[in-house]
Amino acid sequence: MSISENKPEAWQRGPIENVPGLLQPVAHALLQAGEELDVIMKEFPPQLLYQKPYGLASVSFHLRHLSGVLDRLFTYARNEALSEEQLLYLKSETISEDGYSTIDELIDRFHKQVAKAIVQLEQTQETSLTELRTIGRKKIPTTTIGLLFHASEHSMRHLGQLLVTVKLLKSI
After folding, report:
1. What confidence tens digit (pLDDT) does each residue in 98-144 have?
2. Which class would CATH give 10-171?
3. Are 9 and 32 in contact (CB under 8 A)?
4. What is the pTM (predicted TM-score) of this model?
5. Which residues lie closer than 8 Å to 80 by C-beta, 6 or more apart?
6. Residue 30 near residue 117, CB atoms below 8 Å
């Protein structure tokens, strides 16, 4: 069972309509991340958003990074370079405190990014999955499927780190 509302995890609820079979695990992981994020952040005190307990990354960082990395990796999967806006957002992920973003806004941004990712998965041809893609200015080689799977894996990794940070902050 997932941590969200005592229902089966996303992958146990069947295929996501219109998502190619080989990309179902990516879609399931991203949908699961969104559901678990809502549970983890329920009733999280806003005054703790920028706290860094024991030097850990803040809740704000994880919320920003979840959206940003998903956007960047899916951009690379489309074989596109990052835009100036994406590069600025990348820099903003580590901002100590901006005073403008609320928890709900940061969560909503991730949900919108997941929805956008699902649309891209629906439009991805399975024949393109092994095509060469590159990452960043260094043009690190990978493949479309490598980027998409890493996006889901990376999202779940940060969700786990977020869970630990939230639990720690709530217990202090």
Report:
1. 666 889 999 999 999 999 999 999 999 999 999 999 999 899 999 99
2. mainly alpha
3. yes
4. 0.92
5. none
6. yes
